[in-house]
Amino acid sequence: MKLPRAREKVSHTPAQIQTALVHNDVTLINSVRDSLARLANNKGKERETLQTLLAAGIPKTVLTGPLRPAVVDGSNIANMSPQRKGRLIYLEQVRRAAWDEGYFPVIIIIDASLPYQIDTPEALFAMVERGEIEMAPSGTSADERLIDTALDLHAVIITNDRLTDWPNAKELEKRHVEFVNNVICLGSFHRSWLPW
Q: Which terminal residue of the chain has fewer beta carbons within 10 Å of its beta carbon, N or C?
């Protein structure tokens, strides 16, 4: 599939676009969005291109809708499991749920202890090494990094933690996460000082 770029044609495969989503490659995603916008005058080509991307599992909201950054409290979300160990799949599900609602980039930040509390530590370490997930340094709380990143990006924090120990988190928008049919979904918005 060829998506035109200013004065040149650039070809991005669906796999490259999916990789760009996972790695929060804002430049490549904006290039794809610009290319799709330029196809608006050719409805047939625009529809064909969108269908190809959607068939590859790329969310339409990230391609065409307004975007807002999100920062995910990865340790909190992974440990929603009723089992003893956290679940890596919850991090993948919450990222997808965020994309589906128009959040991008979706930055997942975890505590350094999470690999020792999760069902697939090797896979989690690999995701950190590939830059798909950020890990706070050992001996520090990921909450501070999570809050600072959200403040810098004017992002929503996706967490079930009210973060009441952090005064600068008070004004940040936060979204709950809940299970619907055993799949992680985004829930309502909340603020630190409000009961839910």
A: C
> Nearest 5°: CA angle at 185, between 184 and 188?
135
Q: Letter for the amino acid at 150?
A: A
What is the second-level CATH architecture of the domain 68-190? Answer: 3-Layer(aba) Sandwich (3.40)
Q: List the alpha helices (DSSP H) in 39-120.
A: 43-55, 60-64, 74-78, 88-100
3-state helix, strand, coil in the chain (%, to 5): 45, 20, 35
The torsion region of residue 146 among left (phi > 0), alpha (psi -120 to 50) and beta comes to: alpha
pLDDT tens column, 165-191 = 777 777 788 898 988 888 888 888 765
Q: Say if strands 8-11 and 174-180 run parallel, antiparallel, or are unpaired.
A: unpaired
Any idea where the domains of the chain sit in the sequence?
2-60, 68-190
What confidence tens digit (pLDDT) does each residue in 25-71 have?
Answer: 999 999 999 999 998 888 899 999 999 999 999 999 999 989 999 99
Instruction: State the CB neighbour count (10 A cutoff) for residue 137.
Output: 10
The whole model's pTM is what?
0.87
Does residue 193 have a pLDDT over 60? no
